[in-house]
Amino acid sequence: MSEIKKQLHQLCLNYVQQRMDAAQHAINEAQQASNDDTKSSAGDKYETGREMAQQETNRNLAQLNEANKLMVILNQLSTNFDSETALPGSLVITSNGMFYLSISAGTLSVEGKSYFAVSPASPIGVKLKGSKTGDSFVLNGKTYNIEQVL
């Protein structure tokens, strides 16, 4: 099972890297648009275009910063441990799905099976963190029975 955790971890790293690449590309595009606008405009139109490009750059810088934070979190996770208690980096098998406690990256597919990458700070992550095999909890009217913690 640690092989599946390694694959899930790699998929999360890929997810974050794609977000970082997209944000960096958008920043470059906005800076290029601002530079192009400088060459062809004058007056208020120039200032408005430049301000819009700056806002776009700032928005994408914030996204890049968030992606960097996620990368730091992932780099601190270990996939080579066994614990009876669900911790960040654990794979938790429940009656309502399989959850990789790491970052919120949505549904990941490994060997034809779906896993949900969830943050320990998310509502379900809070419920999963610290749980053990045999525990159960209710979230949004749905009962989750912990079948296995890996």
Describe this structure in words.
- By secondary structure, the chain is an alpha+beta fold.
- The chain has 2 domains: 2-76; 91-149, no CATH class.
- It contains 3 helices and 6 strands.
- The chain has a 6-stranded mixed sheet with strand order 3-4-2-1-6-5.
- Helix 1 packs antiparallel against helix 2.
- The radius of gyration is 21 Å and the shape is elongated.
- It starts with a helix and ends with a strand.
- The mean pLDDT is 91.
- Strand arrangement within the widest β-sheet reads 3-4-2-1-6-5
Ends apart, CA distance between termini: 7 Å
Number of strands: 6
- Rough shape? elongated
Contiguous low-pLDDT stretches (5 residues minimum) are none
Q: Order of SSEs, N→C?
A: HHEEEEHEE
Question: Number of helix segments?
Answer: 3
Count of individual domains: 2
Quick one: biggest sheet? 6 strands, mixed
By secondary-structure content and strand pairing, the structural class works out as alpha+beta
Mean pLDDT: 91
Q: Which range does the strand content fall in?
A: 15-25%
Fraction of residues in helices? 40-55%
Radius of gyration: 21 Å
